[in-house]
């Protein structure tokens, strides 16, 4: 097949920007906030905790998601700034064709539906009006490319190959997914779902087609990832050797804590309670069990378990005595305005480069992700070369 490219879609972007934010001024600079991990940033007094509020929960890992494919660069002569479209163009451009892939048209309205929910985030992250427009252009390019790739993947799925049965998605799979969507997204209320379709100007048949294409897209991408499933020990060792600095770890303690709140008690009364815990530990009782019985902090039900903590996660009054201890040791009672505290070292990690055996699984996952991304991009590039794609301005 022939692969066509015409002018990039700068003019529709301007119209899209006008449609989405005609009354919006240039975005303000993102607010600068102090690090929540800084002990000087303040504490949550309502939780009766001596830990910075950000240390109560570990930071969420970044979501693992399929990276958007890089858009194909436009010809050099098309990189000039396009003039803003007048507001009267908005309605005409809602259904303007941005690109055609095989026999499917991608319209400005397709792009607008995906961009609109992301506008507030783009505005928060933009430092100027030009930065905002640049981000909007990049997002539009990614979405257009995503629609193109999706259509090409569907075509590849249905392509008949010698010696292979014709592929299809059973209607029952689509029925089940449709019911799941109605249950989870529309409170199992079919009338709400139908109202959504009417507002979107879409038929049930078209919606079912979207579900089918979603299933095909997910299946075909998963098949590509499965083809990359083995990492040799040599690759792991090479990655470790070339990226040792990525495996540096700070001093850390797996902390368990018992807190006795003051509640008008004297220092002597609080120390007596804490010393009683220490004596019971010497007699063989576990710190975890004593925390479940006696602690008055928010982690009592978990045996006072605060997970892995760095020095910077704690107030100096706590980190100094805690990081002098070895695994299995407990601090002396620590008096503070909030009450008395005992801290127990469940485990220790010392500062330095982690040994390869401790990070081997992590490295294998990283390499597998890199291999899968590379393999999938090569696969998509092949589909793009063999497909019919035409852009419109």
- Order of helical and strand elements: HHEEHHHHHHHEEHHEHEEEHE
Strand percent estimate: 5-15%
Number of strands: 9
| Major sheet details | 4 strands, antiparallel
The assigned structural class equals alpha+beta
Describe what this molecule looks like in 3D.
There is one protein chain. The strands form three sheets. The protein has a four-stranded antiparallel beta sheet, with helices on both faces. Helix content is 46%, strand content 12%. Residues 1-12 and 21-93 have low confidence and may be disordered. The protein has three domains: 1-29 and 69-163 and 233-245 and 354-393, no CATH class; 168-226, no CATH class; 251-350, Roll (Chitinase A, domain 3), CATH 3.10.50. The protein has 393 residues and is α+β, with helices and mostly antiparallel strands. The protein contains 13 helices and nine strands. It has helices spanning 10-21, 90-93, 108-115, 119-125, 129-158, 171-185, 190-200, 204-226, 233-242, 267-282, 287-294, 316-322, 356-386; strands at 97-101, 104-107, 248-249, 252-261, 305-310, 334-336, 339-349, 352-353, 389-391. Helix 1 packs across helix 5 (129-158) and helix 8 crosses helix 13 (356-386).
Question: What is the topology?
Answer:
Blueprint: H1 10-21, H2 90-93, E1 97-101, E2 104-107, H3 108-115, H4 119-125, H5 129-158, H6 171-185, H7 190-200, H8 204-226, H9 233-242, E3 248-249, E4 252-261, H10 267-282, H11 287-294, E5 305-310, H12 316-322, E6 334-336, E7 339-349, E8 352-353, H13 356-386, E9 389-391
Antiparallel strand pairs: 1-2, 1-9, 3-8, 4-5, 4-7, 6-7
